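FAQ: What does the model actually see?

It sees only this:
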Amino acid sequence: MSELNVYEDKMAKALDAMREEFATIRAGRANPHILDKLRVDYYGTPTPLQQVANISVPEARMIQIQPWESSLIKEIEKAILVSDLGLTPNNDGKAIRLVFPELTEERRKDLVKDIKKKAESAKVVVRNVRRDANDGFKKQNKASEISDDELKNLENDIQKLTDKYIDFIDKAVDEKSKEILTV
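And it is asked to produce this:
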Protein backbone atom coordinates (compact mmCIF):
# COMPACT_ATOMS: atom_id res chain seq x y z
CA MET A 1 0.00 0.00 0.00
CA SER A 2 2.90 2.39 0.57
CA GLU A 3 3.45 2.32 -3.20
CA LEU A 4 0.06 3.95 -3.66
CA ASN A 5 1.08 6.71 -1.24
CA VAL A 6 3.82 7.84 -3.63
CA TYR A 7 1.27 8.21 -6.42
CA GLU A 8 -1.28 9.86 -4.16
CA ASP A 9 1.36 12.43 -3.12
CA LYS A 10 1.94 13.27 -6.79
CA MET A 11 -1.81 13.69 -7.36
CA ALA A 12 -2.10 15.86 -4.25
CA LYS A 13 0.75 18.07 -5.50
CA ALA A 14 -1.07 18.57 -8.82
CA LEU A 15 -4.20 19.61 -6.91
CA ASP A 16 -2.22 21.98 -4.66
CA ALA A 17 -0.46 23.57 -7.64
CA MET A 18 -3.81 24.18 -9.34
CA ARG A 19 -5.27 25.74 -6.17
CA GLU A 20 -2.23 28.04 -5.92
CA GLU A 21 -2.84 29.15 -9.50
CA PHE A 22 -6.51 29.74 -8.69
CA ALA A 23 -5.46 32.00 -5.81
CA THR A 24 -3.66 34.27 -8.28
CA ILE A 25 -6.79 34.78 -10.39
CA ARG A 26 -8.53 37.95 -9.39
CA ALA A 27 -12.24 37.95 -8.79
CA GLY A 28 -13.08 41.65 -8.54
CA ARG A 29 -12.07 41.80 -4.88
CA ALA A 30 -8.56 42.75 -3.89
CA ASN A 31 -6.62 39.58 -3.14
CA PRO A 32 -2.94 40.03 -2.29
CA HIS A 33 -2.23 36.51 -3.64
CA ILE A 34 -2.45 37.81 -7.20
CA LEU A 35 0.97 39.35 -6.53
CA ASP A 36 2.54 36.04 -5.41
CA LYS A 37 4.32 35.40 -8.70
CA LEU A 38 5.53 38.99 -9.13
CA ARG A 39 9.30 39.48 -8.99
CA VAL A 40 11.05 42.83 -8.53
CA ASP A 41 14.62 43.63 -9.56
CA TYR A 42 16.27 44.16 -6.16
CA TYR A 43 19.93 45.06 -6.61
CA GLY A 44 20.12 42.88 -9.71
CA THR A 45 18.27 39.90 -8.21
CA PRO A 46 14.66 39.01 -9.11
CA THR A 47 13.04 39.00 -5.67
CA PRO A 48 9.44 38.16 -4.67
CA LEU A 49 7.45 41.34 -4.06
CA GLN A 50 6.48 40.16 -0.55
CA GLN A 51 10.18 40.25 0.45
CA VAL A 52 10.71 43.91 -0.44
CA ALA A 53 7.39 45.54 0.49
CA ASN A 54 4.46 45.48 2.86
CA ILE A 55 1.28 44.46 1.04
CA SER A 56 -2.10 45.36 2.53
CA VAL A 57 -5.76 45.56 1.51
CA PRO A 58 -7.11 48.84 2.94
CA GLU A 59 -10.38 48.60 0.97
CA ALA A 60 -12.34 45.79 -0.67
CA ARG A 61 -11.11 46.65 -4.17
CA MET A 62 -7.65 48.07 -3.46
CA ILE A 63 -4.21 46.67 -2.68
CA GLN A 64 -1.57 48.93 -1.22
CA ILE A 65 2.12 48.12 -1.69
CA GLN A 66 4.52 49.96 0.57
CA PRO A 67 8.16 49.21 -0.33
CA TRP A 68 10.67 49.15 2.51
CA GLU A 69 13.00 51.23 0.35
CA SER A 70 11.43 54.10 -1.57
CA SER A 71 13.93 53.55 -4.40
CA LEU A 72 12.03 50.36 -5.26
CA ILE A 73 8.80 52.12 -6.22
CA LYS A 74 9.80 52.43 -9.89
CA GLU A 75 10.90 48.77 -10.04
CA ILE A 76 7.65 47.59 -8.45
CA GLU A 77 5.64 49.73 -10.84
CA LYS A 78 7.55 48.32 -13.80
CA ALA A 79 6.99 44.72 -12.59
CA ILE A 80 3.24 45.32 -12.29
CA LEU A 81 3.00 46.94 -15.73
CA VAL A 82 4.83 44.09 -17.51
CA SER A 83 2.84 41.40 -15.65
CA ASP A 84 -0.43 39.98 -16.96
CA LEU A 85 -2.44 41.45 -14.06
CA GLY A 86 -4.12 44.07 -16.22
CA LEU A 87 -3.86 46.69 -13.48
CA THR A 88 -2.40 50.19 -13.60
CA PRO A 89 -0.41 51.14 -10.51
CA ASN A 90 -1.02 54.54 -8.85
CA ASN A 91 2.13 55.88 -7.21
CA ASP A 92 2.18 58.71 -4.65
CA GLY A 93 5.94 58.57 -4.05
CA LYS A 94 5.63 56.50 -0.86
CA ALA A 95 3.27 53.68 -1.81
CA ILE A 96 1.65 52.07 -4.82
CA ARG A 97 -2.07 51.47 -4.96
CA LEU A 98 -3.75 48.96 -7.25
CA VAL A 99 -7.44 49.65 -7.75
CA PHE A 100 -9.51 46.73 -9.02
CA PRO A 101 -12.21 47.76 -11.47
CA GLU A 102 -15.53 45.95 -11.46
CA LEU A 103 -15.27 42.89 -13.65
CA THR A 104 -17.36 42.94 -16.80
CA GLU A 105 -19.51 39.92 -17.61
CA GLU A 106 -17.23 39.12 -20.55
CA ARG A 107 -14.10 39.29 -18.37
CA ARG A 108 -15.73 37.00 -15.78
CA LYS A 109 -16.47 34.42 -18.49
CA ASP A 110 -12.87 34.65 -19.73
CA LEU A 111 -11.62 34.05 -16.18
CA VAL A 112 -13.86 30.99 -15.82
CA LYS A 113 -12.48 29.63 -19.13
CA ASP A 114 -8.96 30.20 -17.79
CA ILE A 115 -9.86 28.33 -14.59
CA LYS A 116 -11.18 25.40 -16.60
CA LYS A 117 -7.96 25.29 -18.65
CA LYS A 118 -5.85 25.19 -15.49
CA ALA A 119 -8.09 22.45 -14.09
CA GLU A 120 -7.78 20.41 -17.27
CA SER A 121 -3.99 20.63 -16.98
CA ALA A 122 -4.20 19.36 -13.40
CA LYS A 123 -6.44 16.49 -14.55
CA VAL A 124 -3.88 15.55 -17.21
CA VAL A 125 -1.19 15.40 -14.52
CA VAL A 126 -3.40 13.16 -12.35
CA ARG A 127 -4.11 10.86 -15.30
CA ASN A 128 -0.41 10.71 -16.16
CA VAL A 129 0.32 9.65 -12.58
CA ARG A 130 -2.29 6.89 -12.96
CA ARG A 131 -0.67 5.76 -16.23
CA ASP A 132 2.80 5.72 -14.64
CA ALA A 133 1.45 3.76 -11.68
CA ASN A 134 -0.24 1.18 -13.91
CA ASP A 135 2.94 0.81 -16.01
CA GLY A 136 4.94 0.25 -12.84
CA PHE A 137 2.45 -2.33 -11.56
CA LYS A 138 2.52 -4.22 -14.90
CA LYS A 139 6.33 -4.33 -14.83
CA GLN A 140 6.21 -5.75 -11.30
CA ASN A 141 3.71 -8.35 -12.49
CA LYS A 142 5.91 -9.32 -15.45
CA ALA A 143 8.88 -9.65 -13.11
CA SER A 144 6.70 -11.92 -10.91
CA GLU A 145 7.00 -9.49 -7.98
CA ILE A 146 3.20 -9.29 -7.67
CA SER A 147 0.44 -11.73 -8.67
CA ASP A 148 -2.26 -11.11 -11.26
CA ASP A 149 -4.78 -10.58 -8.45
CA GLU A 150 -2.51 -8.02 -6.76
CA LEU A 151 -2.11 -6.28 -10.13
CA LYS A 152 -5.90 -6.03 -10.54
CA ASN A 153 -6.30 -4.73 -6.97
CA LEU A 154 -3.57 -2.12 -7.44
CA GLU A 155 -5.08 -1.00 -10.76
CA ASN A 156 -8.48 -0.66 -9.08
CA ASP A 157 -6.97 1.27 -6.16
CA ILE A 158 -5.11 3.69 -8.42
CA GLN A 159 -8.31 4.24 -10.44
CA LYS A 160 -10.19 5.05 -7.21
CA LEU A 161 -7.45 7.56 -6.28
CA THR A 162 -7.63 9.09 -9.75
CA ASP A 163 -11.42 9.45 -9.51
CA LYS A 164 -11.08 11.02 -6.06
CA TYR A 165 -8.58 13.66 -7.24
CA ILE A 166 -10.51 14.42 -10.43
CA ASP A 167 -13.53 15.00 -8.19
CA PHE A 168 -11.48 17.35 -5.94
CA ILE A 169 -10.41 19.28 -9.05
CA ASP A 170 -14.00 19.56 -10.30
CA LYS A 171 -15.19 20.84 -6.91
CA ALA A 172 -12.39 23.45 -6.81
CA VAL A 173 -13.37 24.61 -10.31
CA ASP A 174 -17.02 24.95 -9.26
CA GLU A 175 -16.09 26.96 -6.15
CA LYS A 176 -13.76 29.33 -8.00
CA SER A 177 -16.21 29.74 -10.90
CA LYS A 178 -19.04 30.64 -8.50
CA GLU A 179 -16.75 33.11 -6.70
CA ILE A 180 -15.93 34.86 -9.98
CA LEU A 181 -19.43 34.84 -11.43
CA THR A 182 -21.15 36.10 -8.27
CA VAL A 183 -18.82 38.88 -7.15
